[in-house]
Write a structure and sequence with these properties.
Strand order of the largest sheet: 1-2
Number of helices: 8
Oligomer: single chain
Shape: elongated
Order of helices and strands: HHEEHHHHHH
Structural class: mainly alpha
Strand content: under 5%
Radius of gyration: 19 Å
Number of strands: 2
Length: 234
């Protein structure tokens, strides 16, 4: 009894991880809602064939054979930036509550994701961008957002493992990050070679991006569940 009571008081003395969980729930929700709302206004938009960033292009035209016409592009671009800010804020809150070397690496990767997804929003990958020679900025930003987000997910899983979290969410979290990275590699190969022709580019991209939002929700669920249990101990 004394040990349990001491653990509970120690837990109360440390900053809570709940603010991080709230940020991550908000980040995933904002991203997915912005995507759905923008896609609903894009005639003929395909979640399999079109890239997510097609939704953020304000131009009307054709890009690599795909028709582009997203009248709600500002909604998607705002969603990109909001997601990056909220995800990084969650990482900062988590590191403040549980500092350490892995935490600092996790925060650096979250900031890399923020910078990359902001570049995607500010330099949309449409015909206008390509005409002005800025396509590389968009591509590098997308790569930074995807790689930074998925690597942060893997590092977050390692942090969970060190905090004696249940094994299942640790394995799922790490698996999501690895899935995202492998899907990003498959996307690059799909677009540059004939080695991976099976799925459309949009499907590969979503397999690289959605693990980030799934991991945010998973981490939030673990944090809130542990917070409730700690509260019951008191």
């Amino acid at each position: 009894m004394g040990s349990r009571s001491q653990d509970a008081s120690t837990s109360r003395a440390r900053p809570s991880l709940v603010p991080a969980a709230i940020c991550w729930i908000a980040a995933a929700t904002v991203y997915l809602v912005a995507e759905a709302v923008t896609a609903a206004g894009f005639a003929g938009y395909s979640y399999a064939a079109n890239f997510i960033s097609d939704l953020g292009v304000p131009d009307v035209g054709v890009m690599q054979g795909r028709p582009i016409d997203s009248p709600r592009s500002a909604v998607m671009n705002a969603g990109f930036i909001a997601h990056g800010i909220l995800a990084a804020a969650g990482a900062a809150a988590a590191v403040r509550a549980r500092p350490g070397m892995l935490g600092r690496g996790f925060l650096v990767l979250a900031v890399l994701h923020l910078l990359g997804i902001t570049a995607v929003a500010l330099v949309p990958g449409g015909p206008h961008t390509m005409e002005h020679g800025l396509g590389a900025v968009h591509t590098v930003g997308a790569g930074a957002a995807i790689c930074g987000g998925n690597l942060a997910t893997v590092l977050a899983a390692l942090r969970l493992r060190r905090s004696a979290a249940p094994r299942a969410p640790v394995l799922v979290g790490a698996g999501l990050g690895v899935l995202g990275l492998l899907s990003a590699a498959a996307l690059v190969l799909h677009m540059t070679t004939d080695l991976i022709p099976a799925a459309p580019a949009g499907a590969w991209e979503r397999a690289a991006v959605y693990p980030i939002q799934a991991a945010e929700l998973l981490a939030a669920a673990v944090i809130l569940s542990r917070s409730r249990r700690a509260g019951h101990l008191g």
